[in-house]
């Protein structure tokens, strides 16, 4: 959403001397943000295989494993879920761990805002098509996949009852998303 806001701001500014300075700053920020997101938050089969082979405890500007992601943190479901011709932007990257869940709204916004490259946009749509039953099924699109289960949702959401398995905020369907 920040990326889309910057793009909108760029369109609203006048190209006068004061506006040009802000436009240059926004363009610089857009380039940095798009590079960061496309490089570090994109997940496809190639990236998944790279993560699987990451070395840990790399700490330098030349490190391949920039966030020191532990390969054992890859969830079991991800290998079956990832299609050969598909990919998506993950929800979060933190030290030693990535949130590998599929977040529909973020990926759709990435397409709409042009944060996703044309190739990434096609890959996102390919993933939706290949995983239609899991992501959409008989109901409107699910907000995330898979839902957090067992004690994991209690730890991450602080036992908030609105975030139980397949509820609105934890993998449930968002009817408003199907009208987008």
TrEMBL record:
The keyword tRNA processing does not apply. GO terms for biological process: sucrose catabolic process. The keyword Glycosyltransferase does not apply. It comes from the Eukaryota. InterPro entries: 6-hairpin_glycosidase_sf, Glyco_hydro_100. One of its GO terms (molecular function) is endo-alpha-N-acetylgalactosaminidase activity. Keywords: Carbohydrate metabolism, Glycosidase, Hydrolase. Its EC number is 3.2.1.26. It catalyses: Hydrolysis of terminal non-reducing beta-D-fructofuranoside residues in beta-D-fructofuranosides. Invertase that cleaves sucrose into glucose and fructose. Belongs to the glycosyl hydrolase 100 family. This is Alkaline/neutral invertase.
């Amino acid at each position: 959403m920040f990326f889309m806001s910057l793009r909108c701001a760029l369109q609203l500014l006048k190209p006068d001397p004061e506006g040009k300075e802000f436009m240059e700053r926004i363009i610089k920020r857009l380039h940095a943000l798009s590079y960061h997101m496309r490089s570090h938050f994109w997940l496809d089969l190639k990236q998944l295989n790279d993560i699987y082979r990451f070395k840990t405890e790399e700490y330098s500007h030349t490190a391949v494993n920039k966030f020191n992601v532990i390969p054992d943190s890859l969830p079991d479901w991800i290998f079956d879920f990832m299609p050969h011709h598909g990919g998506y932007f993950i929800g979060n990257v933190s030290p030693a761990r990535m949130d590998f869940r599929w977040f529909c709204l973020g990926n759709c916004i990435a397409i709409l805002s042009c944060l996703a490259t044309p190739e990434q946009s096609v890959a996102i749509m390919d993933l939706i098509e290949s995983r239609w039953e899991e992501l959409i099924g008989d109901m409107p699109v699910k907000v995330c996949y898979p839902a957090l289960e067992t004690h994991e949702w209690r730890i991450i959401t602080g036992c908030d009852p609105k975030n139980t398995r397949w509820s609105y905020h934890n993998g449930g369907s968002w009817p408003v998303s199907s009208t987008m």
